[in-house]
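User: Quick sanity check before I run a bigger batch. Here is a single chain. Can you write out its predicted 3D structure?
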Amino acid sequence: MPMVEIRLFLIRLSLTAKRVYCWILTILCIILEDVVAVLHPEKPIIAYNLFWDDDIDYQEDNDPTDHEVVWIEFDREQGQVRGVYTYCHRALLSGEQAIEQANRNSQRARIDVQWGQHGALPLG
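Assistant: Done. Predicted structure follows.
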């Protein structure tokens, strides 16, 4: 069942409002190196860990990748997204627009990617 839930609630990554990408992303020297999905053992929450090619603005940190996390909270009985969360500049971001949009698009939340300083942002 975990793989079914992870696939049902896959996120969509977007560089701009008009171009949406899935798992492999190689545009403008932006490379999504790896994705690791982790299903919470008790709660209906999936953490999608995104490992990007190193940030252009923080190359001195000596990290080979930039790590961003997107959390999707869902209702197992209804099969719908209940929360879309990202971490940005020491704040947890979320919004009703992201939830509504995910449920209108086959439970697939759109995450806007601002590579460099901002990272992954939920819609809205």
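Residues 55 and 116 are 5 Å apart (CA to CA).

User: Great, the batch can go ahead then.
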